[in-house]
# Entry
Amino acid sequence: MTALITARDREAAEIIKGNDRGGYTVPTKGLYPFQWNWDSCLVALGWARIDEDRAWTEIETLFSAQWPDGMVPHIVFHRPDPGYFPGSERWGTGRTPPTSGITQPPVAASCVRRILEGAADGVMAERRARALLPKLLAYHRWFHGVRDPDGVGLVSVLHPWETGMDNSPAWDDALGRVEVAADLEPYVRRDTQHVNASMRPTKAEYDRYMTLVGFFRARGWRDEITRASPFRVADVGLNCILMRADRDLLALAQRFGDDAAAAEIASWIERSERAFGQFVDPATSMWHSIDQVAGGRVPAATHAGFLAFWAGCGDDRLLALLEAWIAKTRYAVASTAADDPRFDAIRYWRGPIWAITNFMVGEGLRQSGHDGIARRIRADTRELIDRGGFYEYFDPRDGAPCGGSSFTWTAAMWLAWAGSEPG
Ligand code: DGY
# Structure
């Protein structure tokens, strides 16, 4: 834990504290009034600069809603809030506390390891990380089992919300094929009451998001939905995040002397490393998601492919593609390449820059020895936040802030990474 120095550091801390609801932190007031899975884990990195005890509590609260089969839901509805749709009744998962029935990119183990290794209070960190180990292991075991029922080394996502990158162009075809249910219950979106509709997913996408929720709910959220889902994708982003989290979990298991867990995790890593070649388009060397319903790689390339560096799998060809990608906009790293017809500079995951993916790509690059480009990504993130404030995402052309304001994970990325002096 290092001192908060600048006015921006203090502002970031105030945002995080202001979004604290007691044991968990909402991503932002209004738009996202509950606990989200990957938000919380990444936000814990920011808490670690302010209050290490509170950082551990953030992750523990999330795991208190873990399902008996190991799944960690993407939303925990700790208390009702009419300002968000779809609320707990629409999910109908029957859990206490109420939760959604899908998950999100599993950054938890990576965040636990990072907080543990940077902890000022090492004794507390050891105790709390050790207590989380079996829960993390159960979460990863669920992914590698339930979401990879044939043991191919790639895990499936069943809903674009599981990827965290809801309206990415990578899902256009796979989601477009999902037929909107004829008996889809009517609904009123709340997100567009908080944020300009031009920055959010479209109605056509929402109808399909809700169709998928209804499909899974009708099947009681049972494991069979993996094979039955009309939307089933091996998301390159989530698989890379899981690979990285497996490596971090392995380090935790070794540190705590759990040999059986370490062997199990190592076998997942080996299997996935063998399968990851399928993400790579041999013609371009870019990493793409795989549509497991239609078969084959999806045509759209997105910044999720660069998470291969976070996974420890990036190579020089991918590095060259990243350099070319970055050269197309003023700021790095746009979520879709600026010369792609699907690029939309301000619409959520179709072009804007996100501090959290910049963190993962940037840290992955630094850890694999690509310091120059890693520094560039971090400096850009710092400038975007310093100029625009703690927004949800940023226009890669001019840095204009977009989406929700006073955004918790943007503040956390400032404190944990981007706001520190260039190294
Ligand atoms: C939303 O509501 O936009 C979320 O991303 C879904 O979890």
In short: DSSP finds 16 helices and six strands in the chain.
